[in-house]
Amino acid sequence: MSMSAIVWFRQDLRLEDHYPLLMALATKRKLILVYVLEETKHWAIGRAASWWLEESLKAFQQSIKDKGGHLMIFHGDTEDVFKKLIKQHEVEELFYGANYEPEERKIEKRIESLCKSLGVAVHQFHHNLLYNPETVLTKEGRPFQVYTPFWNRTQLFQPPEEPLPAPHSLENCVKSGGEPISKLQLKQKWDLHQIPLVWEPGEQGAKKRLKTFVSKGRVHDYAHDRDFPALEGTSKLSPHLHLGEISPRAAWHACHSSLIYRKELVWREFAKHLLYHFPHTTDKPLKPEFEAFPWKKNQKHLKAWQKGETGYPIVDAGMRELWHTGWMHNRVRMIVGSFLIKDLHIHWLEGARWFWDCLVDADLASNTLGWQWVGGCGADAAPFFRVFHPTLQEAKFDPTHAYIKKWINEPLPPIVDHDEARKEALDAYHSIVAHRKKKGD
Ligand SMILES: Cc1cc2nc3c(=O)[nH]c(=O)nc-3n(C[C@H](O)[C@H](O)[C@H](O)COP(=O)(O)OP(=O)(O)OC[C@H]3O[C@@H](n4cnc5c(N)ncnc54)[C@H](O)[C@@H]3O)c2cc1C
Q1: Cα-to-centroid distance, 369 and ligand 1 (Å)
Q2: Catalytic residue positions?
Q3: How many CA atoms does the CB half-sphere of 30 hold within 13 Å?
Q4: Chain CA centroid to CA 408, Å
Q5: What is d(CA 341, CA 344) in angstroms, rounded to the nearest whole number?
Q6: Domains present along the chain, CATH in parentheses
Q7: Which atom of ligand 1 is nearest to the CA of 364?
Q8: Which residues 6+ apart lie within 8 Å of 53 measured at CB?
Q9: Residue segments in the chain with a per-residue pLDDT below the cut of 70
Q10: Does ligand 1 have an atom closer than 6 angstroms to the CB of 273?
Q11: pLDDT tens across 412-437, in order?
């Protein structure tokens, strides 16, 4: 039997701009193309993202088949899967793209030591980011915690390389093995009726979205339109970028005409780098004083927020958009987040968990950064005392009510009074600041 190499697919379910795959092909070895779903308890994949993953895997398996190859899919312990494959196929090399989530990094470490013990050479790549997190550091060699200097530092690097084309053929692959996708049991009970209509998971769907964004001139108008949820003003590439169905380099180059768009892509980088350097922030605030915040446990208010029944139309429209489509506009994510934290005084983690379950683009790095930003307790966060006023936000960003009308028919009475709730939040904030000062931190 000929010696072979494994290409381990993770959050990079694409054929274009896939360094590990191209490098593995260059070895001329027989390739084993593998995806393993190892379920982690910590931030286990949510329901909307599970639906997406199943669809994306189906599309990816088909694209590989169209090139003459075969994607083996397994459900279970990655180490067990690799042990068997390495033995069975006399594997000599492993190629894969790094993942920056804490549990995934633990899996990578286990696989790397397994390979070391079995004499398999490991090649890791950072092809799902524009910049390697080990390289974007302050002069003192520390990670950045503020976005603008992070962006400025990235601009001193060579510009991201042009994306690489997909391989012509995957004929030189092991052609069988793995489990049927249905065995992964990813699809769960969910109000799916609009999600499949709105989205096309997979690399083709991602390329179509990017093409439309560029060809219809949306990228040109992005700097203005991106703040208005009633407009198709943003690229909606987030779920595709999350699973690596398209590379950030591809989006970067296609959208060269918009500096603002490129800056948003670098927010994604910033989130990934922060998670890499501060893995505890998935559950704890980056600013530790916020651990003492007097959060309220109010199931009735939490449910009203989740169902879009707070009586604040922009909040309710956003929460309904999320439930029905698996996505929410960034401006509205900030508004509903601020409402949960600063009007209902409910812990940001409750919001992060709900988003995690409902978003098709649920991404541990961006969700953590987003929630801590809104809560004022994370990197580059707006100060806590800057509270979004839901009614003023609505007037400014949905002046014709076009967005609200799409999701809300009936006006509901507000569950809290915004001005009173804001005052209470600020009093609570001042109490933790005073507490910190007393402790002399
Ligand atoms: C509370 C909260 C939670 C969030 N949770 C997630 C999440 O789980 N997954 C996720 O991908 N994004 C998350 N975001 C960031 C942002 O809202 C989405 O990335 C964006 O709305 C996706 O839409 P789009 O692709 O049309 O973005 P575009 O405006 O077209 O931007 C292009 C790409 O840049 C990246 N990007 C844009 N804004 C941000 C940002 N603020 N932070 C990080 N990356 C960004 C995304 O990859 C996005 O696809 C969250 C934001 C907030 C405030």
Answers
A1: 10
A2: 264, 267, 295, 330, 348, 371
A3: 15
A4: 28
A5: 6
A6: 1-127 (3.40.50.620), 129-161+203-277 (1.25.40.80), 280-430 (1.10.579.10)
A7: 8
A8: 37, 45, 186, 243
A9: 1-2, 188-192, 440-441
A10: no
A11: 999 999 999 999 999 999 988 777 77
